[in-house]
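Researcher: Sequence recovery benchmark, item below. Answer with residues only.
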């Protein structure tokens, strides 16, 4: 069993990006600039955005954090998005999800300029991804592909089972793992909360990508020997014995499933760090795209 170490690989990617940014600076070029909008003060969202800002600093990007109160109206947020769309200094930006109830998430995603949508959520980018065209791939699926590629995990002709059908992870992964090329060329089954006899399906899988958000959902008896496990789930489970009052766990019963797996991602330290690294990579791509048009 080999651990797919997202922390290690994400650090390698950030080092590679930092080297490219250093060259840009040497040549007197503008460095990439990533902005993030956060509405409200959700603890997990603040943590994520904080680590994105720190990562920008590490690789040499400019970064802008726009914090808006939880009472922000949809109109106010859309106005701020318009400002960032029109600001030529900003190469890419994200709106941290989830948003407060008074704001229509779909409307917000639609308002972002597809050329600055480094999260890859806009329908234009999602459609291009589905058609195998050059575009921004959502950061978490992009990170999973990178992990599989850098560890040389064989995907061709394999049976990949994706658990979860979210637009952020499940659905894009089901498309990407079935595309031509590497990683890809696998036969994909997309499962979700309404799937019957899920154990029957997972026990035949060569690769399982779980993005359900249910702690320790995937048990050892649900997988076959030598399976490749990608655990995207990340849940804070309350625990008074821990200093923070909770512990973080994934969708996979790691202790028992890891005994049967050939490769497995840990939680934390697997897919999570990769997501932020690939957001940096998308921002670099956005900068290059904007430069080539000038």
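Model:
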């Amino acid at each position: 069993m080999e651990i797919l170490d997202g922390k290690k690989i994400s650090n390698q990617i950030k080092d590679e990006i930092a080297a490219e940014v250093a060259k840009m600076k040497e040549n007197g070029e503008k460095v990439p600039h990533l902005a993030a909008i956060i509405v409200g003060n959700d603890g997990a969202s603040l943590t994520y955005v904080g680590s994105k800002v720190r990562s920008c600093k590490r690789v040499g990007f400019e970064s802008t954090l726009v914090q808006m109160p939880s009472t922000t109206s949809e109109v106010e947020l859309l106005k701020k998005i318009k400002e960032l769309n029109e600001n030529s200094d900003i190469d890419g930006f994200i709106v941290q999800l989830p948003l407060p109830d008074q704001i229509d998430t779909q409307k917000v995603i639609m308002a972002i300029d597809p050329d600055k949508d480094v999260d890859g959520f806009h329908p234009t980018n999602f459609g291009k991804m589905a058609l195998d065209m050059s575009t921004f791939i959502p950061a978490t699926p992009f990170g999973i592909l990178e992990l599989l590629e850098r560890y040389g995990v064989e995907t061709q002709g394999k049976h990949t089972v994706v658990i979860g059908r979210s637009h952020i992870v499940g659905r894009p992964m089901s498309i990407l793992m079935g595309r031509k090329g590497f990683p890809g060329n696998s036969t994909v089954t997309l499962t979700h909360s309404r799937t019957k006899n899920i154990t029957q399906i997972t026990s035949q899988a060569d690769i399982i990508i779980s993005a359900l958000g249910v702690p320790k959902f995937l048990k050892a008896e649900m997988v076959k020997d030598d399976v490749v496990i990608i655990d995207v789930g990340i849940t804070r489970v309350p625990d008074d014995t821990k200093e923070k009052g909770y512990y973080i766990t994934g969708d996979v019963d790691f202790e028992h499933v890891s005994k049967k797996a050939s490769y497995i991602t840990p939680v934390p330290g697997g897919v999570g760090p990769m997501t932020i690294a690939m957001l940096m990579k998308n921002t670099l791509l956005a900068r290059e795209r904007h430069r080539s048009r000038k």
